[in-house]
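Supplementary Note 2. Why include the ligand at all?

Several targets in our set were suspected to adopt different conformations when bound, so apo predictions alone were not considered sufficient. For every target with a known small-molecule partner we therefore ran a joint prediction. The input for iron/sulfur cluster is given below.
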Amino acid sequence: MLCTVVKTGVDCFFMTKKGCEYNGGKCKTVIEQCEGCQKANDFPTGKYCIAFPDPAAKWRTGKCNMATHIKAPEKKEAVKVNPLKASKRGSR
Ligand code: SF4
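The joint prediction is reproduced in C-alpha cell form.
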C-alpha cells in the first residue's frame, strides 16, 4: 500500500488502511553512513531510505547489504589444481 505518513507515494509493506504499522508508526531517517546511497531519497518530511524503515538497524551489525555507494570487495577466484595432474606435468 502507498505510504501517506512520511514517504508519501512509496509502496510499503507496513502501510495498511489503519496507517503505518511499523514500530513507532513511521520510518526513521537515514543515518550518516547512508550518505551517497541512491536509496536515500529526499521527501518533504525528511530524508528516508526507500528500502528499509530503520537504516540505523541495517548498519548496526556491519555494512548495509543494499547500499549502492559501497563496492563489495572483489573476490579472487581460487584456481583449482588437481594435484595428480600437476605432478604429471612436473615430471615431463
Ligand atoms: S539501502 Fe542501506 S545504505 Fe542505502 S539508504 Fe537504505 S539503509 Fe542506507
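The pocket of iron/sulfur cluster is lined by residues 30, 34, 37, 39-40, 49, 51-52, 55, 58, 64, 66-67 (CB under 6 Å). The chain has a mean pLDDT of 90. Comparable summaries for the other entries are listed in the accompanying table.
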